Amino acid sequence: MSPKTKEQYAKIREDRRELILKAALELFASQGISHTTIHQIAKKAGISKGLIYNYFTSKEELLEEIIKSSIEHLYAFFDPDHDGILTTEEMEYFIEQQIKMLKQNIDFWKFLYMLLVQPSAQKLVHQLQFEILASGMWKMIASYFRNHKFEDPELETWFFHSMLDGVYMNYVFNAEKYPIDRMKELIIQRYCKP
């Protein structure tokens, strides 16, 4: 058997890291953050407790990484050409990708929502949301609404954000009955074909 390459080691490391995050998310969501131990996370991930510390320094760091990576997933399709200007086509693409991602990973989002209602996660969520509000992304969305002649672009930005949150939550907790594709078309109609 030949020795592993740097790329193979990197892949193993990334796979193990994702396994730890998935185990932590499931346990945090099902039994609460304060009741979950590193030992339980290691056991669920099928690795030793000591190995977790090669990836994360604490349970709090695990929680922060879960929340940060979920936010990064949500906004990965925003302004794909990174020019700082949101076009109608980019807005439509962003909305379509959000719904597609939600449908493909419903279990992940279900666990995440259960996690986010826990008090120990809420402070971190508020901090990360503030970072988003302060980022150029929030300004780009408001600018998009301004350019499309919405009466109150700032308020519309808040409404857009709240509406997407509501769509995600309703779909996650009622996927069988929630008209996700019709909602996507309604959002696209409102924001991309005014």
Structure description:
By secondary structure, this protein is an all-alpha fold. It has 2 domains: 1-57, Homeodomain-like (Arc Repressor Mutant, subunit A); 65-192, Tetracycline Repressor, domain 2 (Orthogonal Bundle), CATH 1.10.357. It has 10 helices and no strands. Helix 1 (6-31) crosses helix 4 and helix 8 (136-147) crosses helix 9. The longest helix is centred in the first third of the chain and has 26 residues, at 6-31.
Short note summarizing the structure:
The chain has 194 residues and is mainly alpha-helical. The chain has helices at 6-31, 38-45, 49-52, 59-74, 88-104, 106-116, 119-134, 136-147, 153-173, 180-192. α1 crosses α4 and α6 packs across α9.
Please write out the topology.
Layout: H1 6-31, H2 38-45, H3 49-52, H4 59-74, H5 88-104, H6 106-116, H7 119-134, H8 136-147, H9 153-173, H10 180-192
Helix pairs in contact: 1-2, 1-4, 1-6, 4-7, 5-10, 6-9, 8-9
- Helix percentage range: over 70%
Q: What would CATH call the architecture of the largest domain?
A: Orthogonal Bundle
**CATH fold description of the largest domain:** Tetracycline Repressor, domain 2
The quaternary organization reads as single chain
Number of distinct helices? 10
Count the beta strands. 0
Low-confidence stretches: none
Q: What's the average pLDDT?
A: 87
Strand content: under 5%
Give the class-level CATH name of the largest domain.
Mainly Alpha
Overall body shape: globular
Instruction: Name the structural class.
Output: mainly alpha
Largest sheet: none
Number of self-contained structural domains: 2
Q: How far apart lie the N and C ends?
A: 62 Å
How many whole angstroms does the radius of gyration measure?
Answer: 19 Å
Order of helices and strands: HHHHHHHHHH
